[in-house]
Specification:
Low-confidence stretches: 1-14, 19-29
Distance between the termini: 32 Å
Shape: globular
Oligomer: single chain
Order of helices and strands: EHEEHHHEEHHEHEEHHHEEHH
Mean pLDDT: 89
Length: 292
């Protein structure tokens, strides 16, 4: 598919400085991957203290002075004692389903949460997206929990990512300059999303042109998020990181690939299979040395 719009640039490839470092990728080594609901700063539960749900029986904002990272997410705590309790037994206090909405997981989706909608079930902290999700979940808690537990491994398999992230977002944590990722597939062109239809996935906020597109995204976010963290595909193929023009794109093997300029698009398409192979090969190393 040809890009729908082309904007020429004076410099066709602006690579980040970190891209000049020696490659950190190692073939044959599987880096652990996690599915954690983290915001643009990497915080889980919007920075609320997970231990406080158990000890105080209510959501309590965490303190940035008391934080730790576990399985790809950063957790904040209201006190040093809560931090110590978490580090002694993170499995006990970390929210179920990676901090994603329990009801959404029960219907095989991923949805963010409101820290005010929570409960402890079988010793696990389960959060919900909003009042509607809370009510639907409580129509049959036991059955919904069973479905969520059954769906979770498949969602992890489809959507998990390494602990470090390298995602192309603006200062507000918004990806694709606010354009709708689903529209590239359904409308075959970039369409601006609306703030009222927003979801955060793997540290980036995506906006959608309609509720229907948002629902499609929630059913399979890994399908719609751009490859290479939304950075230039051709740059990744030569072991570099570069920003993109959201109008220069194509769908490759069912995934959205963006390019920096028309020249990058041309070079990528000289041999798409080879370019894709090389970009996939280099991406792990790029994330390791340039990601957070």
């Amino acid at each position: 598919m040809k890009p729908m719009s082309i904007v020429l640039a004076s410099s066709w490839l602006l690579a980040f400085a970190c891209a000049s470092s020696p490659s950190a990728s190692v073939d044959g080594i599987d880096e652990p991957r996690y599915l954690v609901n983290r915001d643009a700063a990497g915080l889980v539960i919007d920075g609320y203290d997970p231990v406080a749900y158990f000890t105080d029986g209510k959501p309590v904002p965490g303190d940035p002075d008391h934080r730790t990272t576990w399985q790809g997410g950063t957790y904040q705590f209201a006190s040093k004692d809560h931090l110590a309790m978490f580090e002694a037994d993170p499995q006990k206090y970390a929210p179920a389903f990676g901090g994603w909405c329990g009801y959404a997981v029960s219907i095989d989706k991923l949805s963010p949460v409101d820290p005010r909608y929570w409960e402890i079930l079988d010793g696990r902290l389960v959060l919900q997206h909003n009042e509607r999700a809370w009510n639907l979940w409580h129509e049959d808690v036991a059955a919904n929990l069973k479905r969520a537990d059954a769906n979770w491994p498949g969602l992890v398999e489809e959507n998990a990512s390494p602990q470090k992230r390298l995602v192309n977002v603006d200062d507000d944590g918004v990806a694709l300059e606010g354009h709708d990722p689903v529209a590239y597939f359904t409308d075959h062109r970039p369409i601006p999303g609306k703030p009222e239809f927003s979801r955060t996935f793997d540290g980036a906020t995506y906006r959608f042109a309609s509720k229907e597109h948002l629902d499609l995204f929630e059913r399979d976010p890994a399908k719609y998020v751009p490859k290479y963290g939304g950075y230039c595909g051709y740059a990744a193929s030569i072991d570099k990181v570069s920003p993109v023009n959201v109008h220069v794109f194509q769908i490759v093997d069912g995934r959205l690939v963006l390019q920096h300029t028309p020249e990058a698009y041309r070079l990528w398409n000289l041999d798409v299979a080879r370019s894709s192979h090389d970009a996939d090969h280099h991406w792990t190393g790029l994330v390791e040395r340039c990601g957070e």
